[in-house]
Automatic annotation (TrEMBL):
It holds the Pfam family OmpW. This is OmpW family protein. It comes from Pontimicrobium aquaticum. One of its GO terms (cellular component) is outer membrane. The keyword Signal applies. Gene3D superfamilies: 2.40.160.20. It comes from the Bacteria.
Length: 204
């Protein structure tokens, strides 16, 4: 998957070169943008179970998002994606879990020419599903709210197309009930993923 992301970066850079003469100015009046991105989602769980190191695997996934502009600076973004992660605690397999984390962010887009940076913050609601318990008898994750912060930039190719680089940090924790076979062990697990995305967007 890393090779796929590297190939996508090279392809996007080639696209920039081929479209260098077809740049849009800052007069765009489109209210909507749609992006297709490839994401690398890297959790940062830290020490959660009685001082033990919890490891949650990195996931590489496709993502679709939509942005609505209230004016030329302020916008709202909704991302749609789902990811699968393997969970281990110092050699003990705690199985896998799928995350569905729709995230709504309020963004401020800075004025610019062909490069337009932006920052944003928002709220996230994560749904945990498709749980496989691994070495535990059973696992149960609570769906939960979190907060997100982001920074990114759009590289304008034309009056319709652009490239995008986006970085998000999602502050996310969940309560997990681990059935050890001898009783239920309640655990507070920090996920706190760093989400890096690259892709192409369209204005409409």
């Amino acid at each position: 998957m890393k090779k796929t992301i590297f190939s996508l970066v090279i392809a996007l850079l080639c696209l920039v070169n081929l479209n260098a003469q077809d740049k849009a100015d800052d007069t765009n009046t489109n209210k909507w943008q749609m992006r297709f991105r490839v994401l690398a989602i890297t959790p940062s769980p830290g020490d959660d179970i009685e001082g033990a190191d919890v490891d949650i695997s990195t996931s590489y996934i496709p993502e679709l998002d939509f942005t609505y502009f209230f004016d030329k600076n302020w916008a709202a973004e909704l991302i749609l994606a789902t990811s699968k992660h393997e969970v281990d605690v110092e050699g003990t397999d705690l199985g896998r879990v799928w995350l569905l984390p729709p995230t709504l962010s309020l963004q401020y887009h800075f004025a610019g020419g062909e490069v337009k940076p932006y920052v944003g913050a928002g709220v996230n609601y994560t749904i945990f599903y498709g749980i496989k318990s691994g070495d535990a008898a059973d696992m149960d994750y609570d769906n939960t709210f979190g907060f997100s912060f982001q920074a990114g930039l759009d590289y304008i190719l034309s009056d319709k197309w652009f490239l995008n680089l986006d970085v998000k940090k999602i502050l996310l924790s969940t309560d997990v009930n681990v059935d050890t076979g001898e009783g239920i062990l309640p655990v507070d697990v920090d996920v706190n993923p760093l989400v890096i995305g690259i892709g192409v967007g369209m204005k409409f």
